[in-house]
Records
---
Amino acid sequence: MSKLLVSVTSAEEALQALAGGADIIDMKNPSQGALGALPLSVVTKAVAAVDGRKVTSATTGDLPMDPDVICEAVMQMAETGVDIIKVGFFGNEHENITCLNALQPLIAERKLAVVAVLMADLAPQFALVPLLREAGFWGVMLDTANKDGRNLLAYLDMGSLAVFLQMAEGMQTGLAGSLKIENIENIIKVKPSYIGVRGAVCVGFDRVAKLCKDRVSALSVLLYNCNKSVESADLA
């Protein structure tokens, strides 16, 4: 069954997401880009507020693809106690592979759960996926870098998403990118490990506005029902 990842900006929002039924509580600063990072102190407080009741994750920021910068950001985020660390891969093939190789020993030595985030609107390099698996990444997900109202499905059709998920077999997989409630019923058919949202559960569907617990709850119920429908179709 696909799980629900909800991005939050504070310990208070983390508790709202928890109460609303989110499966993964993701710390992110939406005012600072696609993967904007929150201050480490805020992430630490949010992780403490969740207190192990759900899985937590956090983004490291829209960073340049410099291996030293990326590794330092991951090490600092690991100190917050968050369960999963998300790293954006925004570069060209050479830059991305260089950063991937730099992260590999860090992941192994510190036993970190790291997710690589590929950008659907920046010609995502699906060829990276098997390399990420070999490097020990916990997961890989698709998102969108430009938050201009277009969502994931504006850049990749369902067939392309299915190919991506098939290539990522053996890893946790995520699909996100300005997804709206009406997108969920389609996207869940390809069975990602989780679906990530922010704007869909905010006041006015604005990703930089406050989180709305009732919208988290409604989406959690919708996702549950969609999962059941997919399971029933598989058994038919």
---
Amino acid sequence: MATIRSLGDLVSPLGGTINVANVIMQLALPGVGQGVVDSTVDSGRADLHPVKRARTTGAYLAVAAFGNDDDRAYVREAVRRIHSQVTSAPGAPVAYSANSPVLQLWVAVCLLTYFVDQYELLHGPLSEDEFRRVLRDGASLGTTLNVRPESWPTTREEYDELWRAGVDSISMNDDVRTYLTHLAELSFLEVRLGRLGRVIHRVFGRSFEFVTRGALPPEFRDVMHYEWTLADQRRFDRYLSNLRTMHRWTPWVWRLPWQAYLLDMRLRRRLGIPVF
């Protein structure tokens, strides 16, 4: 594989099947998980508007990885405005604000992990120089999410420290776990897609949930009450081997969906069609 120089160089065919695993990582921090489950901003919920949520999340990641400063400024303000509506009620068991710098930083660190996992699960660890370049380029994942630039890690040691601190703080109640289980099984698609959603759930749900379990670090499997056996690991390794071969023959293909998300976002802005 070519030398990794930027966030966009990490995208691979694995990205489309480990996205819910990364959502689980994000929502395992109680303030993030409870904020999503309790949110009254229905237009942004994956279970109620799955197509829109996929488009807007794709647009955000595409802007962070491939966009320019104008794209990022636009998305940053849109995210800040939407997140300002997501706050916990007084006296709630779990206090949260979607614009909390602490919660935003955890989400951004998880998103960086999403890109890194796409590459490292297939091809092994990045070199120190490659990780440093990705970390520097990946700062846009945080700043587009309103994370202050000075809060973003500048070394692998700082990133690892943030990651360990986050993992040490994860926990999950049944409401959040049930929400995430429906995402991992694809059964959430039945809410809005009806019969089509049921077909997708029954045909692909079990395999998608398996890959989700495989992509999770053990600490996150534990809070989801997932089991994982040696036989599961061997099956997951075979899956990764197949995707590794695919990626080596078609490395350029996997940027195209992200470029499409970016183009869609820019066209919507130009035509005055809502993006978020």
---
Amino acid sequence: MTGLLLLCLLLLFGGQRSLACPHLCSCHSNQVNCSSRSFTSSSLPTRFPAGTTDLRLHNNLLSSLPNGLLDDFPSLRSVSLHGNPWVCDCGILYLRAWLLRQPATLKSHLGVNCSSPPSLRGRLVVYLTEQEVLESCHYWYCDLALASQVCLCVFVIMQAALLVALLVFLRKFERLSKEARRTTEESFTAGEGLRENEYAHLKDSSI
């Protein structure tokens, strides 16, 4: 009985969450307005009321949309996505696929232009070919690989410089050790000679 009660409570609160207006957005009837809220792709709400028919996401800071965000709205008739700095790399594939599935009358693709990379700037996302998107992904990976190689080269150069400095120090230490040993030996030899001279002098004096 307790388990059944908990299940009912979960379903009740889950249903309420699905009908709740997202934080920082405004809702009126079945219209959800999340425009001009400075939302980024990571801060954008991931849940909207199930009966949403009009979703406004324009004039934010969106570079991509989370996968599956717009898939569960059978009543959706209008989505505004313009005025966002869309990055047309691998992360744009979901939005592109969703736009391609929409009827032309929805016009959600209007104003959805690439902000980067430079080679695709200004292009409508819906008209990008898959090859163009994949090339932009390779471009991004190439930049990352180049940066990694530069860091690796800098690390190797630093290691080589430290090794050279260590060798120079060891050679200098070896040279100083030899000079100190030679000086010690010369001092010892000079001391022995001085003692022999003193002994000879004393011997002559005694005679």
